[in-house]
């Protein structure tokens, strides 16, 4: 089995030098190259080889070869004046191809827009990437005050309504693995986080949706519902969220939660899964 260790950043993985000797199917160089691309965080335009070596735990000489190769392939651009790298158009092209092949986005968007306007909030669709949920579609209402998260935004898996909803339908082994991984990075907060996840499981069983009321951010309330994918597809989840003062728990439980459940059922039916 591949020897994978978590880095200080829970979204990065450290691959040991002998990984390929333990798993002949695992290409260590490819894995390391992809981790280099994942080093870039929202709002960061440029990173140096030293920055990436520190974040990944990969030796700097190896980082230099990886960034050289990724630049040749168009996944990174190099600034001579800064001596640093930025993500290239190749990364965007890959992301666009993934999004363009998600039929659920096209099917769900009109329904999401309708619910967002009713709730005067935001309605989003996301999928899991390690310990985060990544938005692949989002619709905002015409309200002046709303959440400003766009396609590609990342939110925590364990403390958000969308993330907890997705956890509810994962296989037990995968769910346990993710929760163990999260516990390592959230030692002090873990008892509270775990209690929120367990409440989410109960809410989903009883009502068909999960709630996050200030668990991720104190001033954000949201409801989340998972959607089972067809064979071979990623599991996804929807949420409806906004400022806490606009979305009371009572509104989430009595109005928006049931409406979001109905939205998912309609999408699944339109996709031929209902």
From TrEMBL:
SUPFAM superfamilies, alphabetized: GAF domain-like, Winged helix' DNA-binding domain
Transcription recorded as keyword: yes
PANTHER family per UniProt: HELIX-TURN-HELIX TRANSCRIPTIONAL REGULATOR, ICLR FAMILY (PTHR30136), TRANSCRIPTIONAL REGULATORY PROTEIN (PTHR30136:SF33)
PROSITE patterns xrefs: HTH_ICLR, ICLR_ED
Stated name of the protein: IclR family transcriptional regulator
Keywords for the protein's UniProt record, in alphabetical order: DNA-binding, Transcription, Transcription regulation
One Pfam family cited in the UniProt record for this chain: HTH_IclR
Organism: Janthinobacterium kumbetense
Record-annotated IclR-ED domain positions: 90-273
Residues covered by the HTH iclR-type domain: 27-89
Keyword Transport: no
InterPro entries noted in UniProt: GAF-like_dom_sf, HTH_MetabolicPath_Reg, Tscrpt_reg_IclR_C, Tscrpt_reg_IclR_N, WH-like_DNA-bd_sf, WH_DNA-bd_sf
């Amino acid at each position: 089995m591949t020897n994978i260790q978590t880095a200080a950043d829970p979204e990065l993985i450290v691959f040991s030098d002998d990984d390929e000797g333990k798993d002949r199917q695992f290409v260590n160089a490819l894995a390391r190259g992809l981790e280099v691309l994942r080093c870039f965080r929202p709002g960061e335009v440029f990173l140096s080889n030293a920055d990436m070596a520190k974040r990944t735990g990969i030796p700097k000489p190896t980082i230099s070869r990886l960034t050289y190769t990724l630049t040749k392939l168009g996944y990174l651009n190099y600034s001579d004046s800064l001596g640093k790298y930025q993500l290239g158009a190749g990364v965007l092209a890959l992301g666009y191809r993934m999004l363009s092949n998600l039929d659920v986005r096209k099917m769900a968007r009109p329904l999401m827009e309708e619910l967002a306007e009713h709730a005067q909030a935001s309605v989003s669709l996301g999928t899991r990437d390690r310990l985060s949920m990544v938005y692949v579609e989002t619709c905002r209402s015409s309200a002046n005050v709303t959440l400003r998260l766009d396609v590609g935004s990342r939110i925590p898996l364990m403390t958000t309504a969308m993330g907890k909803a997705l956890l509810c339908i994962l296989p037990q082994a995968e769910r346990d693995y993710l929760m163990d991984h999260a516990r390592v990075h959230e030692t002090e907060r873990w008892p509270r986080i775990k209690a929120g996840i367990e409440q989410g499981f109960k809410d989903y069983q009883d009502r068909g949706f999960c709630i996050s009321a200030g668990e991720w951010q104190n001033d954000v309330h949201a409801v989340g519902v998972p959607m089972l994918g067809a064979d071979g597809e990623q599991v996804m989840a929807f949420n409806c969220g906004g400022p806490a003062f606009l979305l009371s728990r009572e509104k989430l439980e009595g109005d928006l939660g049931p409406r979001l459940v109905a939205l998912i059922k309609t999408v699944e039916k339109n996709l031929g899964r209902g």
